[in-house]
């Protein structure tokens, strides 16, 4: 039996009102214990992808599951699985990573 991926994205698409396609059929699967890096130039869709996974931005189409929870149908359960530290967040210089993530989870609903 296969383990449920921590994050599963299937054929994710995002088209903005301007007609710009930020994401064109992105699919990925991240399993527990894996280290995953999201790399690309400015405008490649990295932030859009993260924001859609976290439920901050609406997708145009596709499916996202967090620990098996659909991020639309089971929004609260999916969202409770995520700890997001936004790039704009300022913290104390000597704050621990754990404290920063804990603080950001409080900002975003957990």
UniProtKB/TrEMBL annotation:
The keyword Nucleotide-binding applies. Gene3D superfamilies: P-loop containing nucleotide triphosphate hydrolases (3.40.50.300). GO terms for molecular function: ATP binding; ATP hydrolysis activity. Pfam families: ABC_tran (PF00005). Residues 23-93 form the ABC transporter domain. Keywords: ATP-binding, Nucleotide-binding, Transport. This is ABC transporter domain-containing protein. It comes from marine metagenome.
């Amino acid at each position: 039996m296969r383990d449920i991926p921590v994050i599963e994205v299937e054929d994710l698409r995002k088209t903005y009102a301007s007609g710009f396609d930020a994401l064109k059929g992105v699919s990925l699967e991240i399993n527990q214990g894996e280290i995953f890096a999201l790399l690309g130039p400015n405008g490649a869709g990295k932030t859009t992808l993260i924001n859609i996974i976290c439920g901050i931005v609406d997708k145009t189409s596709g499916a996202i599951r967090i620990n098996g929870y659909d991020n639309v149908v089971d929004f609260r359960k999916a969202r409770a699985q995520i700890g997001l530290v936004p790039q704009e967040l300022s913290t104390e210089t000597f704050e621990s990573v754990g404290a920063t993530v804990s603080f950001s989870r409080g900002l975003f609903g957990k």
